[in-house]
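Friendly challenge for the regulars: who can give me the C-alpha cells for this chain first? No prize, just bragging rights.
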Amino acid sequence: MTWEELDYARLEALRVRFLERTAGDADYWNDEADLASYDLTFAERIGWKWDAVLRELQLRQWQPPRQVPLVDWGCGSGVALRRWLQHVGLADWTELVVSDRSARAMRYAEESVRRQYQEAGQPLPTIRQLSPDAAAAAATGSVLLVSHVMNELDGAGRARLIEAASQAQAVVWVEPGAYDESRALIQIREALMRDFRPVAPCTHSAGCGMLTEDNNRHWCHHFGRAPVEAFTEGHWAQFGKWLGIDLRALPYSFLVMERRTRENESVPSPDWSRAIGHPREYKGYLKILNCQAEGVEELMMQKRDAKALHKHIRKGKYLPIYRWRRKDAKVVGGEALDQEGCL
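First reply, four minutes later:
Bragging rights claimed.
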C-alpha cells in the first residue's frame, strides 16, 4: 500500500466507527486493502503512542519477562506487536500469538511480523493465530499486549480480557487518552493489584488517587510526540487535512503491570511523581496535575523558584517523571528522570 493508493473515503468510514464506538458491532475489515490503509495511517499513529510507552519503560529500566509467550490480543494489523519487538527485541520469546476476531486481521498481522524478522535476519519463533477465547487461555504466563480495544468490548468481553490479564506475567495495555478509556484502565489496575505491581504510568503501588471524589473530573492521560516526518512529509499533511486530524495531538492512556512474584524492582522509587496530561501555563507559573503515592493533587510551580526545571517542563524535554522539592502544594525545585536516572 502506498499513499497514492489510499482510499480516503474508506478511511473516513473506519474512523467514524471508531469515534462512534460502533467498531465492536462486527468485523469491519472488508479486505486486505482496508488493513494496509489502516496500517499506513491510523495504526502508525497508534505506533507513535507505543513508541512513547516503550521509551518510558526503557527510561524506568524495566526488564520484562523473557522466554515466555508474547500475546497480541486484538491485534488488528499487528502494530503493537511490531513496535514491542522493535523496542524490546526479536529474541527470547517462546512463541508469538496474534489474536483477533477477524481472521483477515490475524493473517495480516502474522505476515507483517514475519517480514519484520526476515528483514532483521533473525530466526522466527512459532507464530499462532488464535481466537480471543483461545488467546485468553494462551495468555497464561505470557507478556500480554493490548491496544485500543476498550471501546470495542462489551461487559463480557472486558471481563474475559481481564481474566486473561490476571494469568499473564506482565500486561502492557495502551488506549486512547479519553476519559472513559482512562477510567476503565484505572478499574483494571485496581482489579489486578492483589497479584500485580504497577510499573507505569504509576510511580507507586498505592491505590489510584484518581478515585477520590475530588478527582472525579480528571483522568490519567499523557501525550506522545509525533515524529518529524509527520510535519515534514506532504502525505501526512494531506492525511490530517482530509480527515480533520491534528497530527500534533497524540493523547493516550496506558497501564503496565507485572506479577508481584518477580524479583526485579523497577525504578523509579515511590518518592518520584508523575505529571498528568499537559501542565497549564500562566504568566510566571505553571499548574501541574501531579500523581504520587500520597494521591493526585494540583501543584503550582513559579518560574522564579525553579527556572531550569520550569523551562524543561514547558518545552516538554523530558518524560513527566519528577522528584519534586515542595513547600506544601508549591514546587520550589526538583529533578527529572532521564536515561541516567535523573536530571
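Residues 339-343 have pLDDT under 50 and may be disordered. The longest helix spans residues 42-59. Your move, everyone else.
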